[in-house]
Design brief:
TIM Barrel, 251 residues, binds 1,3-dihydroxyacetonephosphate, 8-stranded parallel beta barrel, globular, alpha/beta, 40% helix
């Protein structure tokens, strides 16, 4: 089964409006090969400007989180309807920083994911184990709990829209990339799990991205593995040259 690769940049809490706008322009100028998708998740304040800067490019826009209601008394949250209004078509959900710094639970993440699906945003569900969990041989157990917890109530008919991102916590922002064998092993495990949860042909369409210190010099080998369908990139997406190179992996 051939899946369309997705290279996603997560800018986290970086860049003012002007900085984001010029970086988006520079990245868009690098072009996107027709056989793959590319996406940027700017901070909310820069979303409108980045959307404008990306006019005429096939670059997709994503949020870094989302609420689940259309509107209401939810101070500090952002509605999926507002995100669509500003040009987003995808939403990063359950990022490791949301889980570990802000204490988001699988239950809360599931609410966010259901809200994204309800209002037509493609969710990118992030999951990943800590170093302690890996060293205690808990990796698969932790990932299964996060995957099943995040996807509770998601029917097969909606599952084809999902994207999963495996981001081992110990590889995020550390310069320590998981080896391509470690990544393939986990992705194959997740694919098998998805096939138990959903119809096989639907599960085999779900893209599984890897995130954690993806750089120009390791993207090609990671992307050559069977179950690696893309990358979720942090630090290296903050510079046009390196993100353009990552978008053009294996070329
Ligand atoms: P780095 O690429 O900086 O390790 O960040 C990964 C990440 O968290 C992307 O969401």
């Amino acid at each position: 089964m051939k899946r369309r690769p997705l290279i996603a940049g997560n800018w986290k809490m970086h860049l003012t409006i002007g900085e984001a706008e010029s970086l988006a322009r520079a990245i868009a100028r690098g072009g996107i090969p027709a056989d793959r998708d590319a996406m940027l998740a700017p901070p909310y304040t820069a979303m409108a400007a980045v959307n404008k800067a990306l006019q005429g490019s096939s670059m997709l826009l994503a949020s870094q989180n989302n609420g689940w209601e259309e509107k209401g008394a939810f101070t500090g949250e952002i509605s999926p309807v507002m995100l669509k209004d500003v040009g987003c078509s995808m939403a990063i959900i359950g990022h490791s920083e949301r889980r570990h710094i802000f204490g988001e639970s699988d239950q809360l993440i599931n609410k966010r994911l259901s809200g994204a699906l309800k209002y037509g945003l493609v969710p990118i569900l992030c999951i990943g184990e800590t170093l302690e969990e890996r060293e205690a041989n808990q990796t698969f157990k932790v990932l299964e709990t996060q995957l099943r917890g995040g996807l509770t109530g998601v029917a097969s008919s909606e599952a084809d829209k999902l994207v999963i991102a495996y981001e081992p916590v110990w590889a995020i922002g550390t310069g320590k990339t998981a080896s391509e064998d470690q990544v393939q092993e986990v992705h194959a495990f997740l694919r098998t799990l998805l096939k138990k949860m959903y119809e096989k042909d639907i599960a085999s369409q779900i893209r599984i991205l890897y995130g954690g210190s993806v750089k120009p010099d390791n993207v090609d080998v990671l992307m050559s593995r069977e179950d690696v369908d893309g990358a979720l990139v942090g630090g290296a997406a903050l510079q046009a040259e390196s993100f353009i190179r990552i978008i053009h992996f294996n070329q």
